[in-house]
């Protein structure tokens, strides 16, 4: 990473964390140059980048300032949940969501789809084309069940960035993170077992619990700090929980990054009560701050964390390549992986390994992180502008998903219905709860480069919500 | 299909079925021309093809004759099995097999790997290359959970050949047949349930039963007629069986095609006892006879058959694209598919759909069927020549896998060990039984075009077996 980028990241995260408040004067170019031991032009480049990102505002002859506060919707509330394990419902709504395919006449804000039109992905498709042009028969053979050694090595190298010391032999390649999660659950639990989950929580992982016959115990989750450790401890005391399933980095759907101290505390709890942790890090590389956040796995000293990730969110979901570091559960994980899909496809593995090995991964990440961060700010702005008064919204620290909370009595299933003929699709909140909570919430995707059509679509969601809020008698 | 091919198939299957015996004179070219209303040159072309396949022998001035009988090893015995459901073992041996990747220094006869070096596959890799050269972003997006409509339509069209009337909407695309089988089991059974299986039976499907907590009830299986309906009926009477899992066409590992009347009888049994049938048709398109055999699904009138297949054996396993027709279990199948891997990769689906749509599928199949049939004859010949006296072998009617049975006391695990330093790998028999039977059997792959190195490898297997048979005291 070049110096000016590093500097911009440092200063940017200080601004984001509120060390400088709206209207504050930022350190002068000269002062920064001295403090960080870099040239004046490096500081100026960093400031220009921050300006692009809307984090700094130049004023003639006076230097850089933090822009005046935007009108920000308040944060979502923390759900008060009945603490008992439940069977998971909402498959119908999930099915409706995952049956969708891209359509030119619908702006799809519902799915967890990254922007795959970025030119920084070109080397990847070039690799895939080359693999096929040379009709390399090897790449169409069965791969070994563990996955390609080339990709496993690259994944192990990437893991260093999240503080994780793993070797290639610790890594298992999977068919997307979906398989990694599902295999993890099956490796750790038996049907009927209880798994503690964040609430709200990724619908895919919850449907896996449902499909495999587990029960979910929803733990209240803070939109800034993540899963409530206090509530979790109570639950561990009270129920025979087998595993804790969390997405601590760039959480889906809430967008927070769990503070490091809380990650360590969560691990300590798991150790005390001897339960496994299934850690979903599928969005971790898309954190807006540098360096990227650590995983719980990076603190794991007795192999109880099953770390799951994939290239679906950082590269492209159609590759269907995920990975996991299963720790002490490796044997059972391998068996479950075998019966799930056998070996994973080799061609995309080789293409991804080449993409990373040739140094294309980091620049691509940097580009996407910046794009998504701008997307977040715009999307929050639109929610503030177009949604009913009192609407709350998350402050994602990475990824490309915004969680929106409407009036408590609001029903997003009705909204979803109303939107069907208006060319917009969102993810309804109830699928993020085991028991159909969050009917007043929805999740929207801001991955795509902003266009008037997307703003128009978000506006339509907001306006439809306003219409539905009007009393029926009016 | 051209006339001469059709004629060759007809006459070839008459010879194979024994209507003409070794040494018999075959009908004259002129007689055939009159009987079938085709030109003399068409008949001559057909005969030349039969000659290539070793089914006809020209004798100067006398016409064509059935070649003298080759020395054929006797058929494998039918196992006498204890009829009680068992937990499945042998994961270690399966893991050893599926951990292998192609190595230049080892002749791998163990895996169910087709020949992917055929030039008739070129249009497929060209499609994949083109999809990536144009960097068609759509193909890297999430696909809908059901799979690509294009491929579903092509699969529905192919199904006509096996007598199955299905529309695109009845088809679900999966990540290989492995996923189709695993999803089927989970859609139909609960942990602890009993599933009746052929014995011997495909290790992948059995490991799925194991991983999902089911028990297997092994049913004696005839190397010509398939699963014993009599034993199956007894078992259905005695045990609360939930599903019957069979591979009636080009069975793995025995290679038989179950006669149609027995397929219908099997379905009738399933209806009478109200159990589901999980039908694996992954090798069905590779039957050596034309037209290809029907599936049990083709007789299914109440949706109880879950038909599973893939392009792994007919095109290439690295594509990881399978399909299923789940009948009345569609809803649950879709949920299980979702939690298994989400949607399957779109690029290979589009490439396969194009391959079929452009008419490349049939010619490729014809080529591979002919190659595999020749491979079978050679492999049986080698077994007769190089293996210990008394060795038995199957007579595969399709596919590319030969089942070999050695002396009852023989231990192929010891053979496998001995072969490790001799550059050959086979599949040991015990993985084809839920309870570790068939230790005296092994499975060999004859998909690759024969080379002296392959003959040498088979010879080494045979010779190693002979050495191990010698009394230790000697």
UniProtKB/TrEMBL annotation, chains A, B:
Domain HTH gntR-type: 1-69
CDD domains reported for this sequence: AAT_like, WHTH_GntR
Origin superkingdom: Bacteria
Any matching Pfam family: GntR
GO molecular function, one term: transaminase activity
Keywords annotated in UniProt: Aminotransferase, DNA-binding, Pyridoxal phosphate, Transcription, Transcription regulation, Transferase
Gene3D superfamilies linked: Aspartate Aminotransferase, domain 1 (3.90.1150.10), Type I PLP-dependent aspartate aminotransferase-like (Major domain) (3.40.640.10), Winged helix-like DNA-binding domain superfamily/Winged helix DNA-binding domain (1.10.10.10)
Protein's GO biological process: alpha-amino acid metabolic process
PANTHER family: HTH-TYPE TRANSCRIPTIONAL REGULATORY PROTEIN GABR (PTHR46577), TRANSCRIPTIONAL REGULATORY PROTEIN (PTHR46577:SF2)
Family membership noted in the UniProt record: In the C-terminal section; belongs to the class-I pyridoxal-phosphate-dependent aminotransferase family.
Protein known as: Probable transcriptional regulator
Organism: Pseudomonas aeruginosa (strain ATCC 15692 / DSM 22644 / CIP 104116 / JCM 14847 / LMG 12228 / 1C / PRS 101 / PAO1)
């Amino acid at each position: 990473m070049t110096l000016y980028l590093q500097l911009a990241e440092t200063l940017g995260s200080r601004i984001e964390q509120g060390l400088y408040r709206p209207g504050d004067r930022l350190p002068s170019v000269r002062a920064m140059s001295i403090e960080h031991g870099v040239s004046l032009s490096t500081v100026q480049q960093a400031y220009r980048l921050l300006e692009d990102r809307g984090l700094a505002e130049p004023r003639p002859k006076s230097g850089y300032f933090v822009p005046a506060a935007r009108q920000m919707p308040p944060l979502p509330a923390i759900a008060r949940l009945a603490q008992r394990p439940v069977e998971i419902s909402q498959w119908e709504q999930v099915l409706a969501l995952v049956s969708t395919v891209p359509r030119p006449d619908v702006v799809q804000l519902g799915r967890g789809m990254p922007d795959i039109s970025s030119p920084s992905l070109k080397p990847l498709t070039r690799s895939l084309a080359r693999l096929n042009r040379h009709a390399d028969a090897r790449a169409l053979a069965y791969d070994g069940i563990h996955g390609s050694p080339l990709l496993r090595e690259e994944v192990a190298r990437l893991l260093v960035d999240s503080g994780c010391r793993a070797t290639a032999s610790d890594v298992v390649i999977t068919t997307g993170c979906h398989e990694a999660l599902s295999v993890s659950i099956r490796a750790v639990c038996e049907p009927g077992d209880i798994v503690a989950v964040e609430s709200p929580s990724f619908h895919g992982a919850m449907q896996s619990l449902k499909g495999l016959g587990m029960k979910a115990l929803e733990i209240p989750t803070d939109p800034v700090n993540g899963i409530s450790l206090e509530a979790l401890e109570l639950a561990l005391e009270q129920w025979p929980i087998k595993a804790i399933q969390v997405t601590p980095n760039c959480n889906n759907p809430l967008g927070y990054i769990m503070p490091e101290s809380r990650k360590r505390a969560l691990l300590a709890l798991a150790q005390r009560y001897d339960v496994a942790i299934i850690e979903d890090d599928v969005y971790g590389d898309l954190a807006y701050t540098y360096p990227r956040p650590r995983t719980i796995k990076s603190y794991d000293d007795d192999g109880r964390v099953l770390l799951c990730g994939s290239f679906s969110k950082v590269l492209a979901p159609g590759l269907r390549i995920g990975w996991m570091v299963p720790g002490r559960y490796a044997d059972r994980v391998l068996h479950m992986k075998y019966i799930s899909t056998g070996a994973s496809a080799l061609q995309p593995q080789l293409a991804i390994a080449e993409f990373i090995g040739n140094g294309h991964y980091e620049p691509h990440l940097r580009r996407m992180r910046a794009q998504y961060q701008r997307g977040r700010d715009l999307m929050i702005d639109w929610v503030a502008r177009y949604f009913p008064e009192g609407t709350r919204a998350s402050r994602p620290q990475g990824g490309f998903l915004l969680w929106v909370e409407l009036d408590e009595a609001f029903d997003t299933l009705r909204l979803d219905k109303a939107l069907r003929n208006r060319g917009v699709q969102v993810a309804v909140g109830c699928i993020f709860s085991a028991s159909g909570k969050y009917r007043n919430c929805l999740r929207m995707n801001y991955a795509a480069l902003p266009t008037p059509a997307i703003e128009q679509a978000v506006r339509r969601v907001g306006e439809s919500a306003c219409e539905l809020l009007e009393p029926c008698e009016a």
